[in-house]
Specification:
single chain; 81 residues; alpha+beta; two-stranded antiparallel ribbon; 4 strands
Amino acid sequence: MDRGRLIRLGPVYQTRDEHGLEELAQRFGTTVWALLELNPDLAHLAADSLPIPKGQEMCVLPGICTAASGMVMDDGGVLGA
């Protein structure tokens, strides 16, 4: 693989309208921090509280084990209701 080549490691979402990172994080059951980790090119938008433009592609890995799913992890790393 060539150095600097971008690869996709998960689903790609293309925005249909302008969206805020917080809105998309909530929609996909993840956090703004996680979205920015997967999409560092969007950090400038978050820093200035700007919306993500229509048509922007971004990597999204939806959260599946979150408090939103009814499960919470305690300090010992154990999931419970």
